Amino acid sequence: MDQSIVLIFNLAVLIMSVVVHEVSHGLMANKLGDPTAKSLGRLSFNPLKHLDFMGSFLVPLASYLLGGFIFGWAKQVPYNPYNLRNQKWGPASVAAAGPASNFTVALIFGLALRFAPVPAAAALGLSLIVFINLLLGVFNLIPIPPLDGSRILAAFLPYRYERQLAMLEHYGFFLVLLFIFFLFPLIAPIFPFLFRLITGSPFFF
Which of 93, 82, 137, 131 shows the shortest CA–CA distance to 109? Predict the structure, then answer.
């Protein structure tokens, strides 16, 4: 298959997956009492409302050309945690909604790949959807600010540690980059396991 077509398809899957991720944050926040995302028109699956030039185009292109995989993000859906009815667990629930949506997408398309008779080309497309959503789901659970895992962790920490975790967010971008370049191999083995568990097929990316 032409590499440009593969890149375009990967980019399209990534964009829609991060849009689902961000909209899920906003839907959960709205359900728990904060209408900020809804009032700003961000509870939409229209990619144009969520695209971030660096995270949705430059980083995915660079990761694909340099590492053979595609990774990126969309603009964060804004919400006001002080509007949430539950101040302790509300922010964690909003944070968990993003990765949960990616795991749900991976499960739906993975089970379709496992049980539905699909041609080889379609199977490759479904596999890419499963892989990218597993990547987004697992990666966002890492407890490094500003990733969702840090907000989930904060709900379990005493207040003094919660504040220290929030202070790390000033260096979040660099911490995430350090993790990607130096520590990502530590979690890499989980992807073949999850992929095979869901699809019943060997991991081939």
Answer: 131
